Amino acid sequence: MLAPFLALGTRYRVTGAHHIPREGGVLVASNHLSYADPVMITAACLMGGRVPRFFAKSGLWKVPVVRNVMTSGRHIAVNRGKASALESFRDTVSAVREGDCVVVFPEGTFSDRDDEWPMKAKTGLARVALTTGAPVVPLACWGSHHVLPVGARLPRVFPRRRVELLAGPPVDLSDLVSERPTATQQREATQRIMAAVTSLLAEVRGEDPPPDLVKA
């Protein structure tokens, strides 16, 4: 429904959607800059032949209209608290093992960096990936924050802003896969995933990432 508005209101480009497997469970890992990201990423996944489910904050199920979208789309709620977090983890593992495409923002929220590069990621995505052995496709999203900045009430569609998404080949985590990955394995997998996302983002932005991200 939003695709026509996306086409009219932005200069939207997706590259690398063929890296998303057309069948089988897969995790898509993206940086996060705007509330517009899910719309942009959904369009990219559809171009890759997949209907995505999102790993999203439980608070979205409390918002009118949005609640209906989250429920009908069978998206996965992330709840705070140890027991709830475990339930979310199990739901995600089940979704991937059932062959779904699940989109995760490893940072857990919008980047709080002034330079809009990714901040430190959480290890939840890595844990799911290592437990299931599912491929993790890195995705860089850039320009969505110019269309709908955090805190803005309405999108900015004039002049049309460039929004670019770039997907890369799955991150190699084969040496870390385990039914019960250790904390060290999860951290290493997270670093590899975020390094891939950051590299793609650098390509989209046409600039080198900050030294602290390169070292990480």
TrEMBL record:
CC terms in the record's Gene Ontology section: plasma membrane
The protein's name: 1-acyl-sn-glycerol-3-phosphate acyltransferase
Q: Where are the transmembrane segments?
A: none
Q: Which InterPro entries match?
A: Plipid/glycerol_acylTrfase
Identify a single GO molecular function assigned to this protein: 1-acylglycerol-3-phosphate O-acyltransferase activity
Keywords tagged on the record:
Acyltransferase, Transferase
- Is Mitochondrion among the key words of this record? no
Example GO biological process: phosphatidic acid biosynthetic process
- What are the Phospholipid/glycerol acyltransferase domain coordinates in residue numbering? 26-144
One Pfam short name:
Acyltransferase
* Key word Transferase present: yes
* UniProt cross-references to SMART domains, sorted A to Z: PlsC
CDD domains linked: LPLAT_AGPAT-like
